[in-house]
Amino acid sequence: MKRLILLSVFLISSFNILLAQDEDQKELIKNVIQSAYVDGLCNNADTEAVNKGFHPGFILLGVGNGNVMWSYPIYSWIENAKNGKKKGLKYSFQNEFTTIKFLFIDVSGTAAVAKIEFFEGNELYSIDYLSLLKFEDGWKIVSKIFHSIPKEKK
Known about the structure:
By secondary structure, this protein is α+β, with helices and mostly antiparallel strands. The chain has a single domain, classed as Nuclear Transport Factor 2, Chain: A. It is 40% helix and 39% strand. It has 3 helices and 6 strands; from the N terminus they run H-H-E-E-H-E-E-E-E. Strand 3 (98-108) and strand 4 form a beta hairpin.
């Protein structure tokens, strides 16, 4: 009976340690997404912040007219953000502040996916799925797919 109790305590302790490590990784991922994607790219056109959190091989993927899949590399997205600021926009792509809400983060070793709600001002703009990989220097965003929220007709 003592062995069973000791084994149970050991298993519960091990499980709690694994959960804590997973939560630590999720916090690191949230920080990368907030600093590189939201603040770096969308709100400030901050190339240094973007480069810290995005892998240079990052690709944004979407579906366009005629059911054709398109891709957009991070270097083009950065230039677009900088051009928005040069054109006088308050933020990188619009005059509304970008915020997000994390819906979930799933981590499996060195791979993770985050589902977020993406807001421009108070308006829900899209649901984003960000894929991340963990490199020697930390988590990097490597791809994004999304669903645009249709704007209500007024």
